[in-house]
Amino acid sequence: MTEYPVILNPEGRFPGLIVVDHAGIATPDRFGALGLEEHWHATHHFCDLGVEPLARALADRLDAPVVLGTVSRLVLDLNRWLEDPRSIAVQVEGTPIPGNRTLTPEARALRQEAIFWPYHEAVGVLWARVTARHADPVFLALHSCTRVFDGIRRPWDAGTIWNENPALSRPLLEALGRDAGLRLGDNQPYSGRGGIYTVDRHTHGSGLRACGIEISNDLLETPRDTAGWAARLAAALETCVGERERA
């Protein structure tokens, strides 16, 4: 049995699925060493900082099924097309990643077979189960992002990412916007209009509500931060799905 990904609450009652592409920090020995200095492991390049405990808290609060990508995005990025050069990055902020620059086609295929396909198979199976049980479910891809990127400070505390339609993004932002202290973005700081791999792969053309959300990782640094965002986001998602699904 593969050790990737981690699945929480596969039988959860919440009418939706939460997926976390970049929850993990694992760099399994079987894939070879990345060769990066240790300080990179604590950066947003390595994983989405703060998002794994937030996802676990949401799983508990909502009784929601959750899929966690447990391997570092620098080993393989689960939210990229396999043909995308960023699927297995060869540098980070101009610093080479030695273990990725010398990958053979066989080693690349090993990562894909062991990490990429099991993750997306698990997401597909759980999403099919959710859509069979609920008439109008939601698909949420949970991410965090860095406040300062390429020397530019991003003003958004959180923002949605969507491509096909804003049917989940708009009510989610409206619900979150009841907290007047938050600055929120619609397709900010990243736009999904050019495609969002995980969201599009599993929902495009279905007519079902789906989007990603990015939360600035400086707002997820402590257990108190995590608890606050879990409460806020759980309440917003409950508002979006409506109590009729709970009947």
UniProtKB/TrEMBL annotation:
GO MF, one annotated term: hydrolase activity
Keywords, in A-Z order: Hydrolase
Entries under InterPro entries matching the protein: N-FG_amidohydro
SUPFAM superfamilies membership: Zn-dependent exopeptidases (SSF53187)
Name of the protein: Predicted N-formylglutamate amidohydrolase
Lineage, top ranks: Bacteria, Pseudomonadati, Pseudomonadota, Alphaproteobacteria, Rhodobacterales
